[in-house]
Specification:
11 strands, four-stranded parallel sheet, five-stranded mixed sheet, 13 helices, homodimer, 437 residues, alpha/beta, Rossmann fold
Chain lengths: 437, 437
C-alpha cells in the first residue's frame, strides 16, 4: 500500500506506541489458591502485554497493595509467563484479608488509593472469590468518592464454586476432576481389599458451606453399586443413624462402601460435624479431627467394620497435574476478558462464565456487575441432590460433567516432576512511607 | 522354502498347537494393591497367551485358591487385558491372609493342592510382598513334599519398597511419583498462603516400618529452602522437641514449613506416634488420629501456627493417573519374566529388578531364590538419611530419581475420567466341595 502513496511514509518509531493506554494495571491474587489461578494471571499478563500495558502484581494480594509490595511483571520472560499457565498455587502470593466497610476501614482504603496514585494504577484486577469481589467493589466506590480514575474488575476464582451469577468458577473444574478421579481410583483399591480388609472408606472433600466438590465425586461412578455409594452434603442435615443405616445397606449389597463427605456437613442443630472432634488424645493433647476421621470412627465403633479415610486437603486444590482442560481454558478466558473489560473502562464488573449448552458444552464470558456477585453464596440447587440425600441427580451430572472434561497436563522434566515455575517475587522500590498492615 | 522340498508339507492344523505346555497357570494378587499391580497381571496374561498357556486367576488372592473361586482369563478380550495395564487396584481382588507354617496350617495347604490338582495347575504365580513370597515358598515346599509337580514364582509388588534382594519394588515408583508431585504442588499452595494463613503443612506418607515413600517426597525439592523442609523417617527415633525446634528454624528462614512424616515414626521407646491418638472426642467417641493430625496438633498447640495436614491414604497407592513410566515398565517386565521362569521350571524364585546403572538408569530382571526374599524387610540404608535426620542425601536422590521418571497416563474418556476396566470376576464352576476359609 505504501508504494501507492505520493510520498514515502516514515517507519514507525519502535520506541513509541500510540496505542499504549496510559497508566498501570495492578493484578492481585486472593483467598485460597487453585490449580489454575496462575493460568488466569498468565492470561492477564499476556493480554496486557499485547496492548502494551504495564502490569504490576501485588505480593500477597491486597496486602501487597497496602504495603506497596509490588512485583514488576515486565521483568518476566515470555517463557515464564507461559509457564505460569501450568503452575499451581499463587505465584505472586495470596492472602486471607477481608476489608471491612469503607467507613470502618477508611485508613486502609485511603492508603490503597495513595499506592495506586504513586504507581499510576488505573486498572485494578482482583482475582478471588466472594470477599475479593467485595473488596474490588469497595475500592471502586472509594475511587469514585475521591474522584480517582480507576476501573476495578473482579476476576473469579474458587474451588468452592460458590460465586453467584457465574455458571461455574475457575479452579472448581480442576478440583472436581481431581476429586472424581481420586474417588474412582480409591474405589478400585477398596473393592480389591474388601473381602479381608477395609470395608468402608471415607473421603473428605473441601466445601464448608456448599457441597459442590462432594457432588463432583459423584461423577466417579454412575451405576447403583458404583462408588461413591454415599455422599454427604452440607446442604442436608447430617443424621448419624440414617447415615450408618445406609452404610449397612451398601456394605450388604456391594461388599464395601465408599463415602464422600463435605467438610461442612452439620447436624440438625446446625453444629458442624467436624467440631465433634477437638477432643484430647491419650496424652491430653489437642486432637485435630475432621469430618472423615469422625465418620470413620463412628463406622468402626458402631458397625465394627475396618475403615480407612483420606483427607486430601490442599492436594485437591493444587493438583495441577490432573487439571481439567475446560477449567484451564475458562481460567485463561476470564483473565483475558478482565483485561479487555478493564481497558474498555467497564468498572465494577466481573467476567463470568455463561453456559449456553450442556451437550455439546458451550460457554462464553460476559460482564456481570460486582454488586450481583459480592457477598452472595451459591449453594447446590435442591434439584442436584438425590431425594434420599446421599447422591447426585442426573441434572447435577449434566451440570458437572463438562467442567471436568479434557486433560491439560503440565510439561514434565526428565526428573519425573512437573516443570512448575517459581517467581522470585522481587518487589519494586517503594515510593511511599512504610505501612504495616 | 517349502517349494524346494521334494514333497509338499501339510499346512499346520490351526486347532492344534504342539508347543502348548500342558497344565494351567494360576495367578493371584495379594496384600495392599498398587497403581500397577494390574499391569503385572496384564503382562502375565499376555505372556502366557503368547505361549498358549491357560491362565486362571484366583479371586481375592490365596483365599480364592482355597475357596476354588477361580476366574478364567481366557474369556477376557485382548482389549480388556491391555486395559488392565492402565487400571489401578487389584482387578481379581486381593487379600490380607498370611498362612502359617506348613504344620500349623496343613489343612489349608492340602486344600490348595487339591484345588491345584482339580484344575491341573502346574504353575503358581503369587503377586505380592513379603508375606506372599513366604506363601509361595511354602506352597512349593508342600508340593515337593507331596510329589505334586508345581513351579511356584513370587512376583514382586509393594508400594512400601521393602522387599529384599530386588533393587526396587513395582508399585513403589508410582506411589513415589504421586508423593513427590503432590508435595511439590502442596508446597506452592502453602507458600502462597503463608503470609496470612497456613504456616505449617504436614503430609502423612505410608510406610509402617520403612521410610521409602517419605524419602521419595524429598525429590519434590532440592534447594535448602525447598519443600519438604522436614522429613520424619521411621528409621530414626522421633524426638518432639527436636522436631518442633526444627519447625521454628524453618518457619523463621522460609516463612513456612512443609513436613512429611512416615506413618510409622516411633519415639525413642519404640511407641508409634500414631498411637498417641486413639483418644476420645468431646462426645466420648473414639477419635481416629494418625501421625499428621498429631504432629499438626502439636505445632498448633506449642508453636501457635495455623496448620493444615493431609492424609492421602489409599489415594497414594491407587493414583494410576500419575503413575511412573519406569515403574509401569518394571511391573510389566516382572510379569513377563515370571511366566518365563515358571514355564522354564524355575521353582521358588522371584523375578527381581537389578540396577546396573544410576545415570543413565539401566536395569534388568533376574531370578532370585524366594528363600532370600521371604520374611526379610529392607529399610532405608543409613546413608540415605541426612545426618540431622530431617532429609535425604544425594545417594538417596540417585537411587530414587530414576524410579519416578516418565509419565504413563491412562487413556481418558470424553467424560474427563480415566478409562479403567472393571472385570466381572465371574468364577468357573467348582469341582470340589465348598470350603470356608
Amino acid at each position: 500500500m505504501a508504494a501507492s502513496l505520493p510520498y514515502p511514509t516514515p517507519d514507525p518509531d519502535p520506541t513509541q506506541d500510540f496505542q499504549m493506554p496510559k497508566g498501570t494495571l495492578l493484578y492481585a491474587q486472593s483467598g485460597g489458591v487453585t490449580a489454575v489461578i496462575n493460568a488466569t494471571a498468565s492470561a492477564v499478563i499476556q493480554a496486557a502485554r499485547a496492548r502494551k500495558v504495564r502490569v504490576l502484581a501485588a505480593r500477597n494480594g491486597i496486602l501487597g497493595a497496602l504495603r506497596e509490595e509490588l512485583i514488576d511483571t515486565s521483568t518476566m520472560s515470555a517463557a515464564q509467563v507461559k509457564a505460569l499457565a501450568h503452575t499451581p498455587g499463587g505465584a505472586f502470593g495470596s492472602c486471607r484479608l477481608k476489608l471491612k466497610s469503607l467507613d470502618a476501614d477508611r485508613a486502609k482504603y485511603e492508603r490503597l488509593l495513595d499506592v495506586f496514585r504513586a504507581h499510576d494504577v488505573r486498572w485494578f484486577l482482583y482475582n478471588g472469590g466472594n470477599d475479593s469481589a467485595d473488596t474490588a467493589l469497595k475500592v471502586s466506590q472509594l475511587a469514585a468518592e475521591y474522584d480517582y480514575p480507576l476501573t476495578c474488575v473482579g476476576v473469579p476464582k474458587t474451588i468452592d464454586n460458590d460465586l453467584a451469577v457465574t455458571d461455574c468458577c475457575p479452579g472448581f473444574g480442576s478440583a472436581a476432576k481431581y476429586t472424581a478421579v481420586s474417588v474412582r481410583e480409591a474405589a478400585l483399591d477398596v473393592a480389591a481389599m474388601s473381602e479381608t480388609s477395609t470395608k468402608v472408606f471415607v473421603y473428605e472433600a473441601m466445601g464448608r458451606h456448599a457441597g459442590w466438590l462432594a457432588a463432583a465425586a459423584g461423577l466417579a461412578g454412575d451405576g447403583r453399586n458404583d462408588a461413591p455409594q454415599i455422599i454427604l452434603f452440607p446442604e442436608r442435615a447430617y443424621d448419624e443413624a440414617a447415615f450408618l443405616a445406609q452404610v449397612v445397606v451398601v456394605v450388604k449389597r456391594v461388599g464395601w462402601c465408599l463415602v464422600v463427605a463435605s467438610e461442612g456437613i452439620r447436624d440438625a442443630d446446625g453444629r458442624f460435624v467436624a467440631d465433634a472432634g477437638g477432643g484430647k488424645d491419650s496424652f491430653g493433647h489437642t486432637q485435630l479431627g475432621g469430618v472423615a476421621a469422625h465418620l470413620a470412627g463412628r463406622v468402626k465403633d458402631v458397625l465394627g467394620h475396618k475403615v480407612h479415610w483420606t483427607l486430601p486437603d490442599y492436594l485437591q486444590r493444587s493438583a495441577r497435574h490432573i487439571a481439567s482442560k475446560t477449567d484451564l481454558e475458562q481460567a485463561m478466558a476470564v483473565g483475558r476478558k478482565a483485561v479487555e473489560f478493564a481497558l474498555a473502562g467497564k468498572n465494577s464488573v466481573m467476567p463470568v462464565i455463561v453456559r449456553t449448552s450442556d451437550s455439546p458444552y458451550r460457554w462464553s464470558v460476559e460482564a456481570a456487575p460486582l454488586t450481583k456477585v459480592a457477598n452472595h453464596e451459591k449453594t447446590m440447587p435442591a434439584g442436584f441432590i438425590r431425594k434420599d440425600g446421599f447422591g447426585i441427580t442426573a441434572a447435577a451430572r449434566r451440570y458437572l460433567q463438562p467442567l471436568i472434561a479434557g486433560e491439560a497436563y503440565p510439561p514434565f522434566g526428565r526428573n519425573g516432576l512437573p516443570d512448575y515455575v517459581v517467581l522470585d517475587q522481587a518487589t519494586i522500590r517503594r515510593t511511599l512511607p512504610r505501612w504495616d498492615a
